[in-house]
Specification:
alpha+beta, Rieske Iron-sulfur Protein, Naphthalene 1,2-dioxygenase Alpha Subunit, Chain A, domain 1, 2 domains, 4-stranded antiparallel β-sheet, 11 helices, 23 strands, 21% helix
Length: 432
C-alpha cells in the first residue's frame, strides 16, 4: 500500500509538484508529427497540466508556447498563422516560436511595448513521428539514444491514444509482465491478426506466444538495474520442453520497451495530460524490413475518434464487454485488441487509483521498483536520482528467447545480438 501523501507525489504532474518536476527533467512527447499535417499546422496541447499550443511557422520552425495570450488570456490555438508567428485574433499581437512578441498593432506605431513581452515557451524537436518537448529548467539534455529514436524513419511507426486515468496506472500495466498470461489470453487460436500482439512464434520454438501464455507455468520475474531504469527478466517453463525468457524494460520516469515480435519492439511513453487523463505514445521499431506505416495506421485509426485519438471503446460502453465472448473466446470478453484490455485495466481503477488499500504480490516487483525510483527522485532530484537523464543510454533490448539450459541471460543476449548484427541499422548495445 502507498500512503496518501506519497500517492500524490506519484500521480501529480502539474507545475510546482514534486512528481511534475521529475517528469519535466526529461523530453516528453507533445504530439504526433501527423497532427501538424495540413495547411494549418496548429495544435492545442495540454501537457502535464499546462495549456500550450504547438505550431509550425511559415519558415518551418516548430514552436510550443503558452496557449493563453499574454495580453488578455484568449486561446491562441485559434490564432492566425502568419507573418512568422501566431497572431492573436483579439488584438493582433504576434508571437513567434521563441515566445517573443514581435507586433502589437493596436498600439501606436512608435511604441516599443512589444519588446517587453516574453511569453511562455518550451524547446521542441521532431524525431521519428513524434514532436518532443522539454518543460524543465535550464538546457535540455540530448534526446536519448534509444532504438526508436536512432532507427531510420522507414523502420519506425508512431501512434498515440487517450486514456481517462492517471499516467501512473498506464505505466504500471506496462511493467507488470504477469498480467499478459491472463488479460490478453485467447481461449482458442484463430486467424484474426490485428490486436493479437502475441500471434508470432517465440524465437525458434515453433510455439506462438498466445499458446505459451495460455499453457506455461507462472512466471518468475526479476528486476535488474539498468542505466535507463531497470530491466525485467521474466521466465516461464513450457511443459518441461524449454524455458521462455522475456526481456522488457522500464525507462525512467514514464516509458517502457517491450517485445512485439521476433522482428519488432515497442517503446511506449505514458504522458500526463492532467492528473486524471493521459496519452500513450507508442513507437514500433522494426529490426528487419521497413514498417508498413500505411497499414499500421489504418488498423489503429479505425479504433479511435478524432480529434484527440479517443478510443471507440471506453467506460461508456463497458469497453465492448461481451459475456458470451468471455465464456468461449477471450479471457476479458473485450475483443482481441490488447490496447482495449490494457485500457480497461487502467481506467477501471478510477481516475486516480487510491493505493492505500492495494495488496501488491511478489510478482509486482516492477511496480515496487519503479515507485521507489520515482519517490527517491521526487525527494531528491539530484543527478544520481534522475536515472538516464545525463548519461548515454541505448537500446534497450526487448526480446523473447527460449533455452533448454539454465543460462537465461546468455539465451536472450545471444538472440538480441544476432538480431542486431543482421539489421541494416541497429548497433550493438550495452547489456549492463
Amino acid at each position: 500500500m502507498v500512503a496518501a501523501d506519497a500517492n500524490r507525489v506519484l500521480t501529480e504532474s502539474g507545475p510546482g509538484t514534486a512528481g511534475g518536476h521529475v517528469l519535466r527533467q526529461y523530453w516528453q512527447p507533445a504530439a504526433l508529427t501527423e497532427e501538424l499535417a495540413g495547411d494549418r499546422p496548429v495544435v492545442p496541447v495540454t501537457l502535464m497540466n499546462e495549456q500550450l499550443v504547438l505550431f509550425t511557422d511559415d519558415q518551418g520552425r516548430l514552436g510550443l508556447i503558452g496557449r493563453n495570450c499574454p495580453h488578455r488570456g484568449v486561446d491562441l490555438s485559434f490564432g492566425r498563422l502568419e507573418d512568422g508567428g501566431l497572431r492573436c485574433p483579439f488584438h493582433g499581437w504576434l508571437l513567434d516560436v521563441n515566445g517573443a512578441c514581435t507586433e502589437t498593432p493596436a498600439e501606436p506605431t512608435t511604441s516599443t511595448f512589444h519588446q517587453r513581452i516574453r511569453h511562455l515557451n518550451y524547446p521542441v524537436q521532431e524525431r521519428n513521428g513524434i514532436v518532443w518537448a522539454y518543460l524543465g529548467d535550464g538546457e535540455p539534455p540530448p534526446l536519448p539514444g534509444f532504438d526508436c529514436l536512432v532507427a531510420p524513419q522507414t523502420h519506425v511507426f508512431a501512434f498515440k491514444g487517450l486514456w481517462h486515468a492517471n499516467w501512473l496506472q498506464s505505466h504500471e500495466v506496462g511493467i507488470d509482465p504477469a498480467h499478459a498470461a491472463f488479460l490478453h489470453r485467447l481461449l482458442e487460436d484463430d486467424s484474426v491478426e490485428y490486436g493479437q500482439q502475441f500471434r508470432d512464434l517465440v524465437a525458434d520454438s515453433g510455439v506462438t506466444t498466445i499458446k505459451l501464455m495460455r499453457e506455461a507455468s507462472p512466471p518468475t520475474i526479476i528486476a535488474e538495474p539498468a542505466p535507463y531504469g531497470f530491466r525485467l527478466r521474466t521466465t516461464r517453463d513450457f511443459r518441461g520442453q524449454f524455458t521462455h525468457v522475456r526481456i522488457s524494460n522500464s525507462i525512467f520516469p514514464n516509458a517502457i520497451t517491450i517485445a512485439m515480435s521476433r522482428e519488432m519492439s515497442i517503446t511506449q511513453w505514458h504522458v500526463p495530460i492532467d492528473d486524471t487523463s493521459s496519452y500513450w505514445y507508442s513507437m514500433f521499431v522494426s529490426f528487419g524490413q521497413p514498417v508498413d506505416a500505411e497499414i499500421m495506421r489504418s488498423q489503429r485509426i479505425s479504433e479511435v475518434t478524432m480529434p484527440g485519438y479517443r478510443p471507440i471503446n471506453s467506460r461508456f460502453n463497458n469497453w465492448g464487454y461481451d459475456p458470451d465472448e468471455q465464456r468461449t473466446q477471450t479471457y476479458t470478453g473485450m475483443g482481441r485488441d490488447i490496447n482495449v484490455h490494457d485500457q480497461w485495466a487502467v481506467e477501471s481503477q478510477g481516475a486516480i487509483y487510491d493505493r492505500s488499500t492495494e495488496q501488491l504480490s511478489p510478482s509486482d516487483v516492477g511496480i515496487r521498483t519503479h515507485r521507489r525510483q520515482f519517490l527517491a527522485a521526487a525527494e531528491d532530484p539530484s543527478a544520481s536520482n534522475l536515472i538516464g537523464r545525463d548519461t548515454p543510454v541505448d537500446g534497450p533490448p526487448a526480446i523473447d528467447a527460449v533455452t533448454t539450459g539454465n543460462d537465461f541471460d546468455r539465451a536472450w543476449k545471444d538472440l538480441d545480438g544476432s538480431r542486431r548484427a543482421a539489421s541494416d541499422w541497429a548497433a550493438p548495445v550495452d547489456y549492463r
